[in-house]
Amino acid sequence: MRGTLAELGEFGLIERITQDLVTGPQVVLGPGDDAAVVSVDGGVVVSTDAMNENVHFRTDWVAGEDVGHRCIGRALADIEAMGATPTAVVIALSTPETTTIRWIERFTQGVMEECETAHVSLVGGDVSRAEMISVAVTAIGQTGGRAVITRSGAQIGDTVALKGRLGWAAAGLAVLSRGFRSPRAVVSAYQRPRISYGAGVEAGRHQATSMIDVSDGLIADLRHIATASGVLINIETNQLPLPEPLQTLGHATGKDPLELVLTGGEDHGFVATFPEGRCPRTWQPIGQVLALDGSDPGVLVDGKEWLKSPGWTHF
Amino acid sequence: MRGTLAELGEFGLIERITQDLVTGPQVVLGPGDDAAVVSVDGGVVVSTDAMNENVHFRTDWVAGEDVGHRCIGRALADIEAMGATPTAVVIALSTPETTTIRWIERFTQGVMEECETAHVSLVGGDVSRAEMISVAVTAIGQTGGRAVITRSGAQIGDTVALKGRLGWAAAGLAVLSRGFRSPRAVVSAYQRPRISYGAGVEAGRHQATSMIDVSDGLIADLRHIATASGVLINIETNQLPLPEPLQTLGHATGKDPLELVLTGGEDHGFVATFPEGRCPRTWQPIGQVLALDGSDPGVLVDGKEWLKSPGWTHF
After folding, report:
1. Residue B229 touches chain A, beta carbons under 8 Å
2. Which of A33, A245, A280, A315 is the Cys-Cys partner for A183 at CB 3.0 to 4.6 Å?
3. Are residues A43 and A118 in the same domain?
4. Number of independent structural domains in chain A
5. What residues in A contact B91, CB-CB < 8 Å?
6. A226, A291 in Cβ contact below 8 A?
7. Shortest Cα distance from A244 to chain B (angstroms)?
């Protein structure tokens, strides 16, 4: 078919993707061989993440460019959440042969732009045929010889703090699901999350004791920290930002903006715990780490249990 | 549904996969956080590879266990083909919620067994929902401070040599496509390729000038070396193994066993070029690297052009 991958072929597609590629100084060998070679400073940090058509995105809701931005951003957020610095990515792109060359070009453009923003190199990949589009991105980072920030180090008395947005992407998805395209700000937040690159190293400099990126929802992701650290975490809702577009959406749809903030994922903001007095100024304090006092590890909202769904889960 | 992923849930599935996990000494931090941390010796070698249901495998032809073995083996073969040592893998598993827990258990078992054989650690992954099964494996290896073996170093006069099998997996696929299950030897070769782990380091010790793993077909993959190195490669068919099961299949189906050997992929044997007299005894010499003499880089079979399809291509 004209204008589709069937016309371009596997190797034509690879050439199209890699033709304008610029790689950074840490790339010893870029795309084009059986594997790439990257030099890293300290330990190698690695994370992988898939995005599947009709599950993570619909091609009529999200342009190829946005899929490119989003798949890279969410993979790099996992490296940042370890307090590490992302260095390189590889992409396994599976797609039907009916996908248009135009879509692939826009996807590639999004990938390249996000890599540029993050100062990260695309070093390799794989393209293959599938019945639906699936994009699996693996990100590689470096510790720089510093200890990584895990989920298990939160200490009683620590301040829980946020960097980035909460609820925007969920609001955008709610809008699109209802067949609307505005408020534009939340729709574009869903289509293309903004990752706070450098947040990992910043948190490390301020002795963060634990850190995670909010991909499934604030409560759901803080629960991972609470469980791994064996603590209670209390979120103070009066500290949470309730931005205007979320309130607008709330009025229009009857959705509780606070619930979007507490349970909406996919903005890939960061939450971390800092020893008292060490929370960076650019982070928003949103709660405290408390002792268990006989209860199970978990997350409280204003001192109470959250009884609704805490966030997104597959299956 | 009982016995399916819908019952197990996302985190139940992750626990099922990681519960018996043993990781090697190079794993600083294993699965369970936003990313894993691995220590490597020298440069980081990285490659990614997807396997998609109904394209790379059919669940009625290949058991979950075999998919597990195969997805790890083919990813690690790319690291070996750089002359490097595989260290760790991450897996992005996308699957419908109707997939049975039994299939996942068998898949996981295959993954673990292949990792054990290769002395490699599974350090992380991602599970998500999709309309078809898709498994994207990223392999990480280390150079150990040695130069990697690329596709571009083949020199005129080098010996072309093979380690591993050719045509077996293609024969197995031909058998299954016709609705048969024997000869059993070729069917199981297709279901579960045997990777010659250590071949990369061995080739490096013998000053291999170029190397690739045969995933698409001998001619197709040697063409990559010929093009990258700017040489002609001549395959001598009287040097190629024509094993008995391939001859049996040839008699039964009218398929030319030599064509299976020259163009069949997915056995993941290795081909490399060695300076004269440096070919290891455990490798089979199968041809020579020749000067271009005015022609374009490419592959000859007994001095003649190969006019049929050289091997597998997506799209």
Report:
1. no
2. A245
3. yes
4. 2
5. 48
6. no
7. 31
Structural domain ending residue among the three candidates B111, B142, B173: B142
A148 interaction partners in chain B (CB closer than 8 Å): 28-29, 33, 35, 37
- Which of A4, A39, A48, A214 to probe by mutation at the B interface, max B CB count within 10 Å? A48
From the list A11, A29, A46, the residue facing B150 with the nearest CB is: A29
- Partners of B136 in the β-ladder: B50, B92
Which residues from chain B sit within 8 angstroms of residue A56, using beta carbons? 128
Residue A230 lies in a domain: yes
Taking CA–CA distances from A12, the nearest residue in chain B reads B315
Q: Is the full-model pTM beyond 0.80?
A: yes
Do residues B134 and B164 both lie within one domain?
no
Q: pLDDT band at A156, cuts 50/70/90?
A: very high
Same domain, A180 and A296: yes
Query: Is B148 within a domain?
Result: no
Residues 10-29 of B with CB under 8 A from A: 10-11, 13, 28-29
- Residue B57: give its domain's CATH number: 3.30.1330.10
pLDDT in tens, A72-130: 999 999 999 999 999 999 999 999 999 999 999 999 999 999 999 999 999 999 999 99
Type of residue at A240:
L
CATH of the domain at B298: 3.90.650.10
Same domain, B9 and B134: yes
Q: What is the spatial distance between Cα B304 and Cα B47, in angstroms, rounded to a whole number? A: 34
Q: Pick A132's closest partner by Cβ from B84, B125, B132.
A: B132
CA-based nearest residue in chain A for residue B48? A125
From A82, A116, A142, give the residue that closes a domain.
Answer: A142
A220 and A121 assigned to the same domain: no
Query: Angle A145-A149-A152 (CA atoms, 0-180°, nearest 5)?
Result: 140
| Residues B100-156 pLDDT 10s | 999 999 999 999 999 999 999 999 999 999 999 999 999 999 999 999 999 999 999
Q: Between chains, do B138 and A46 touch, taking CB under 8 Å as contact?
A: yes
Structural domain for B192, as ranges: 159-305
Whether the CB of B291 is below 8 Å from some CB of chain A: the reply is no
Shared domain check, A120 and A169: no
- Residue A139 distance to chain B (closest CA, Å): 9
B46 touches chain A (CB under 8 A): yes
d(CA B63, CA B68): 9
Name the residue among A60, A39, A22, A76 with its Cα closest to residue A191.
Answer: A60
Q: What 8-state DSSP symbol labels residue A147?
A: P
Among B36, B88, B314, the residue with its CB nearest the CB of A128 is: B314
Q: Which one of B92, B126, B212 has the shortest CB-CB distance to A34?
A: B212
User: ipTM greater than 0.95, yes or no?
Assistant: no
Looking at the fold, whether B135 and B167 belong to one and the same domain comes out as: no
DSSP label at A240?
S
The verdict on residue A18 lying in a domain is yes
